[in-house]
Amino acid sequence: MKRAAFISVAFAVLCFAGCVSVPVEPPGKRGISWYWVERVLSGDSIAVKGVGRVKYIGVWAPGRSITGRHNEKLWKESLDKNRELVEGKWVRLEFDKRREDNLGRFLAYVFVQQDYRTEIFVNGEMLRVGLARLEESTVNTKLIRRLEALESRARGQRLGIWSD
Predict the structure, then answer these.
(1) Which is nearest to 142 in space by CA: 118, 123, 126?
(2) What is the span of the domain harbouring residue 120?
């Protein structure tokens, strides 16, 4: 009897601990797919659970050289900002006409839920704060005007990579 009670309690504790330690349901509205960001790969790409590598449409962020040395201004700040925005969070991916690049990464507009009413457009936010520049596409143009306006604003305010 004591053994059965102990097993029941242990099972309940393990189930409860498992449910608390990992988010089980994404936020947001019904009918919208949300994806978990496992890690940030760079200032313009992420690893998404169940999807793989995702590159932000219209965004080019400073990077590192193959040797790991700084070869671009503000690469670390760009990486850190992207981590702050999406790492360990649920995101919504919106695709355009071309879904993959030549490196096999999915191309998407990425949105992270800020609260129950608003989302942050991650692609645009990286441009708005000056930690990336516009990477124009002749194919994926659905939100290009919005991205152009955000980059122009950062450039005009001399933010981030536009500070020189």
Answers:
(1) 123
(2) 27-162
Cα–Cα distance, 164 to 86 (Å, whole number): 28
The residue assigned the tokens 């990486």 is 79
DSSP alpha helix (H) spans, the chain: 2-21, 75-86, 122-128, 144-156
* Residue 124 belongs to some domain of the structure: yes
With respect to residue 157, please indicate whether it lies within any of the assigned structural domains: yes
CA 58 to chain centre: 14
Residue 1 lies in a domain: no
Q: Domain total for the chain?
A: 1
Q: Which amino acid is at 25?
A: E
CATH of the domain at 137: 2.40.50.90
pLDDT tens digit string along 112-161?
988 888 899 999 999 999 999 999 888 999 999 999 999 999 999 999 99
How many Å apart are CA 40 and CA 113, to the nearest integer? 17
User: Per the confidence metrics, is the pTM higher than 0.90?
Assistant: no
Cβ proximity of 146 and 152 under 8 Å: no
